[in-house]
Amino acid sequence: xxxxxDLARAxxxxxxxxxxxxxxxxxxxxxxxxNLQYEINDAASLEKENPQRALQIYDxxxxxxxxxxxxxxxxxxxxxxxxQALPYAQLAAALFPENANYxxxxxxxxxxxxxxxxxxxxxQLAAQYDADYSQLPAVIQEKKEKFSAK
Length: 150
Known about the structure:
This protein has helices spanning 4-10, 15-46, 51-78, 82-95, 100-112, 116-129, 136-149. By secondary structure, the protein is mainly α. The protein folds into two domains: 1-46; 66-149, Tetratricopeptide repeat domain (Serine Threonine Protein Phosphatase 5, Tetratricopeptide repeat, Alpha Horseshoe), CATH 1.25.40.10. The longest helix has 32 residues, at 15-46.
């Protein structure tokens, strides 16, 4: 087991700085969670008296979370855990239906799970929303054909 001195010697960043960075990251995380909880509580308190404002707050919160859903899906996909990744990808694509990147993520995950109809639907949507994804339907079709040939 490494001692603190070993860690300090092994890295160019001084140990004190590493400890400070870890502490700052923890403080930021706690602050972010506190702010997020505050915003959720704020929206909840407005639901009856000003439902339109509450919806605006909830919408803003969802927009901040969209990248988290897709990012989680993509990381799980990269780890090979497509079954766990699928619901995150579906949620991101459903909440932000015009985001081609989210459809791309969902298409690739669905294809790995051999859900080729779902994969093709989202590959086509990705291509529809962004020409950079125009080859994705062909990639999905090729994956389907390779699977069928087995």
